[in-house]
Design brief:
The chain is mainly alpha-helical. It contains 5 helices and 3 strands; from the N terminus they run αααβααββ. The protein has a domain of 74 residues: 2-Layer Sandwich (Ribosomal Protein S8, Chain: A, domain 1), CATH 3.30.1370. It is elongated, with a radius of gyration of 15 Å. It starts with 8 loop residues before the first helix and ends with a strand.
Length: 111
Amino acid sequence: MMIHLEVSDDQYSKLKELAVAKERTVEEYILDELGITVEPYMNTISQRVATLQSGTMFTVKAVMATDWNRIPRGIRLSIGRKFFKMAENGSIPSVQSLIPDSAGTMTYKKL
């Protein structure tokens, strides 16, 4: 199910300000405030990536396997952005981000 929320320009500005302060997108901020977070998914992904052999190329979708399709699209996008940030800042050890494919899906390599 997809829900569309209409807010005024002033309301959006305030939401954006609050989201930026927490280093989130507006969507991520609203979901966090509602208690809907990506953290359980991030823990699962981190555990699964830790079991990959060095040199393995992967996408977050591939690591999540059949679980991926059960996750709402908006949450999947948030997971992808968060995993990329974590890979880039070293929060997930031994993972290198490579290049996105033509659909924009990021490929990673386990070091």
